[in-house]
Amino acid sequence: NMPKNLEIESKSMLKKEDYKLLISAYKKNKKYKQINYYISSKEMIEKVKNFGLRIRQIGHYYELTLKVTEKVGKTEINQEITGISLSNLVYFKKFPDGEVKDYLVENKICDVSKLQVIGMLETKRKDIDFNGSKISIDKSKYNGVTDFEIECESSSKEKAENDLKNFLEKHGVSYQKSEHNKLARFLSTLH
């Protein structure tokens, strides 16, 4: 019973003023905070192009996610964990049991005992329904950096890209394709 889903999305970086403009255009949509704790090891960092591992905290809800890059999008394996499991990983490098660990071990992706939390990224997010797609407007902070991004999650790559472009165009904001996901941007600040 493995909650696997294919994540298909299109992203664009935003300038601060465009972020402010979009946020104020959707005052009714509530902002919520999520914290990503990134997990890696020396061995895993080498493979980071194909795999991403994180725990996302929203309020008192914690979810461990492994993202595996596929040709079309990313397959996500999600597993709900407890705050105690997160603490055990942070302080004792004890990786939580369950679907994600099983996948890493069975597919010989990395030595699970070497995995640890390498840092965190905090995002304030606002979600908007647009043309049957989900638009998320993000302000993220990590290692002293703040950046702004918009993403569109949809049923196909084409629809995600078109809806995102149309949404931005509707608000007079330019589309700057986001080459690097949050994990890659976070990792670039570690060196």
Description of the structure:
Helices cover 28% and strands 41% of the residues. The chain contains six helices and nine strands; from the N terminus they run ββαβαβββααβββαα. A nine-stranded antiparallel β-sheet has the order 1-6-5-4-3-7-8-9-2, sandwiched between helices. The longest helix has 14 residues, at 157-170. It starts with a strand and ends with a helix. The model has no long low-confidence stretch (mean pLDDT 91).
What tags apply to this protein structure?
single chain; 191 residues; alpha+beta; nine-stranded antiparallel β-sheet; 6 helices; 9 strands
Topology:
Blueprint: E1 4-7, E2 9-14, H1 16-25, E3 31-40, H2 42-46, E4 51-58, E5 61-69, E6 74-81, H3 83-92, H4 99-106, E7 116-130, E8 133-142, E9 145-153, H5 157-170, H6 182-188
Antiparallel strand pairs: 1-6, 2-9, 3-4, 3-7, 4-5, 5-6, 7-8, 8-9
